[in-house]
Amino acid sequence: MKATASSNVSISTKKLVKPAGRSSPKSLNLLQTAGEQARKPINIMPYNNKNNSRDRDQAPVKKVCYLCANKITTLDYKDTQTLRRFMSPHAKILSRNRTGSCPKHQRMITTSLKRARHMALLPFVAA
């Protein structure tokens, strides 16, 4: 049947064109007609988010050493409650970056934790 100007039947002359790149289930949704512009997928989590740029501009807040702030001169290996705050839930010794302790007190913390482990007051690994 031929389409004429007077008939109600319309014939589409548009062709379907696949977008460039690999053919995956996601790209099949992006099928488009030849006359339309290519639709770009929406990037939900952009890598270079400009809202986070102001966080990088500010200097990071330095943590204060817990032992210096509370004026603790010696750390006893039997004081397990204080020592547990310097351990992870997996019973690992936390680094200075995580705890904010100064180098002198970090060495005291490590030796006290190791002594408490040998005396079986603290676990070597999480149970």
Question: What this model shows, in words?
Answer:
With 127 residues, this protein is mainly α. The protein has a domain at 66-118: Ribosomal protein S18 (30s Ribosomal Protein S18), CATH 4.10.640.10. The protein is 30% helix and 3% strand. The protein contains 6 helices and 2 strands, in the order βαβααααα. The protein has helices at 25-28, 53-57, 66-69, 80-84, 96-99, 103-118, and strands at 16-17, 32-33. It has a two-stranded antiparallel sheet with strand order 1-2. The relative contact order is 0.11.
Short description:
The protein has helices at residues 25-28, 53-57, 66-69, 80-84, 96-99, 103-118; strands at 16-17, 32-33.
What is the secondary structure topology, with strand pairs?
Blueprint lengths: L15 E2 L7 H4 L3 E2 L19 H5 L8 H4 L10 H5 L11 H4 L3 H16 L9
Antiparallel strand pairs: 1-2
Structural class: mainly alpha
Low-confidence stretches: none
Please name the CATH architecture of the domain at 66-118: Irregular
Shape: flat
Fourth CATH level, the homologous superfamily of the domain at 66-118: Ribosomal protein S18
Write down the overall mean pLDDT.
Answer: 76
Order of helices and strands: EHEHHHHH
Ends apart, CA distance between termini:
80 Å
Q: For this structure, what is the CATH class of the domain at 66-118?
A: Few Secondary Structures
Q: Going across the major beta sheet, what is the strand order?
A: 1-2
- What's the helix count? 6
What about the largest sheet?
Answer: 2 strands, antiparallel
Number of beta strands: 2
Cα radius of gyration in angstroms: 33 Å
Give the fraction of residues assigned to helices: 25-40%
* Proportion of residues in extended strands: under 5%
Q: Kindly identify the CATH topology of the domain at 66-118.
A: 30s Ribosomal Protein S18
